[in-house]
Design brief:
The chain has eleven helices and 16 strands. The protein has 375 residues and is of the alpha/beta class. It has two domains: 173 residues, no CATH class; 172 residues, Rossmann fold, CATH 3.40.50. It starts with 20 loop residues before the first strand and ends with a helix. Bound molecules: NADP nicotinamide-adenine-dinucleotide phosphate.
Length: 375
């Protein structure tokens, strides 16, 4: 069931669609309009843009589009960088956080934080399946979106609980999963909130599996957080007993949680924004040597050079963090003469949802930690 994201249809197999025009009947027999293949029929500003880069998209549900799945939304999982920015600018009370999210969604038609440029994902129940969508999913299925909220048409009618530890907000509202966008059914053996938390960062551990090899030395910045802990556990599995895994974390509680997983050769207390200090500490932990792979999983800005600096020439710096600046990473690496491969953390990889959930299933300590924190 989890072999591939259930809702995803390879682009080549989808029906070709032209401009938005009147079309056929949907699963409720209602008149539908024919949606533009990449969701441009939802874009209000600027015209001609696609939903992700758009300033504003249409989040109304008066019309039915043939290439959309509609969802009754139960919970938003706000991207960690966005949630932190909202807390820092608006305040940490539930009312302040909800007001800030409402303002973004009312203005943009999507939860697309204009400061961090990031979104998150959501949990809900399928309420309509457009007639042109080829999917096994049906009305009533519980699903989590795997494409960013920064491109997802979203209307919020009411706010309920805010859970700061997991950056999750319970809401009542409606959203759209565009045809072709990945999503996943919630697996029966996971609590919904736990599944949502894992799926939010599902793109991270599979990238570690692709890059970490036996015997390598790997450092993870922000290693006690959600994606960081998944990456640390996966790195240990990949590098084996001959390799090294180092986790850098500034939050003492999360550093202690990470130690308890027993996957790191050393958990380093440090500030992922302090390039020279990170360089010194990582090399000290690794016997004076630079590492093969560094993974940035922090939710703050300014960790580009601290990620790049400890990596040896020919190694790889992988930026999962949404706070990453292309300029700071590319020009920073150039300035310190580092011939290092710089990878942008694509939130999607084939089978990433199944991979991340299976990792949590297999690793009992990780599952217990995440259940306590996020479920
Ligand atoms: P998270 O659970 O909040 O983890 C971030 C960790 O970094 C936390 O433990 C945090 O500690 C720590 N940290 C913060 N500042 C630090 C510093 N100066 N030095 C060392 N550690 C520091 O976040 P997450 O959900 O794993 O997300 C991590 C990043 O991935 C975010 O930037 C998020 O936007 C991004 N993300 C990317 C994608 C994608 O598709 N590429 C998808 C989802 C998320 P505190 O708890 O004290 O802050």
């Amino acid at each position: 069931m989890w072999g591939s994201p259930i809702g995803q249809i390879p682009r080549g197999k989808r029906q070709e669609k032209g401009d938005a025009t009147m079309a056929t009947a949907d699963s409720h027999g209602m008149n539908e309009r024919k949606g533009e293949r990449f969701g441009a029929h939802r874009v209000l500003d600027p015209r001609g843009s696609l939903p992700q880069p758009a300033r504003r998209i249409d989040n109304s549900f008066e019309l039915s589009w043939d290439n959309e799945i509609e969802v009754d939304v139960a919970t938003l999982n706000i991207d960690a960088a966005s949630f932190r920015q909202i807390e820092e600018s608006a305040g940490t009370s539930p009312e302040a956080i909800c007001a800030a999210v409402k303002q973004i969604v009312d203005t943009r038609g999507k939860q697309h934080n204009p400061v961090t440029d990031s979104g998150g994902m959501l949990l809900g129940t399928v309420s309509r399946v457009g007639s042109a969508v080829r999917t096994e999913v049906a009305v009533g299925d519980r699903v989590a979106t795997l494409a960013s909220l920064s491109l997802t048409p979203l209307r919020i009618d009411a706010f309920a609980d805010v859970r700061r530890e997991s950056a999750q907000i319970d809401v009542r509202g409606k959203a759209v999963i565009p045809d072709g966008a990945p999503f996943a059914k919630i697996p029966a053996d996971f609590a919904e909130r736990l599944a949502l938390a894992v799926l939010d960062v599902a793109g991270a551990p599979i990238q570690v599996a692709r890059r970490a090899k036996p015997g390598m030395a790997v450092v993870i910045l922000g290693a006690g957080g959600k994606s960081g802990a998944l990456c640390a556990v996966e790195a240990r599995r990949q590098v084996g007993a001959s390799g090294k895994v180092f986790g850098l974390e500034s939050y003492a509680k999360y550093a202690s949680d990470l130690r308890s997983l027993g996957v790191c050769d050393e958990v380093i207390a440090g500030d992922a924004k302090d390039a020279l200090d990170v360089y010194k500490k990582v090399l000290a932990a690794n016997g004076g040597n630079e590492v093969d792979l560094a993974i940035c999983c922090v939710n703050v800005e300014g960790a580009e050079l601290p990620t790049i600096l400890p990596v040896k020439d020919g190694g790889c710096a992988y930026f999962f963090s949404m706070t990453t600046s292309f300029g700071r990473a590319a020009l920073g690496a150039e300035g310190v003469g580092k011939d290092v491969e710089l990878i942008i953390g694509n939130g999607y990889a084939r089978d990433h949802a199944a991979y991340a959930l299976e990792l949590v299933r297999r690793e009992e300590k990780l599952r217990a930690l995440f259940s306590a924190r996020y479920a």
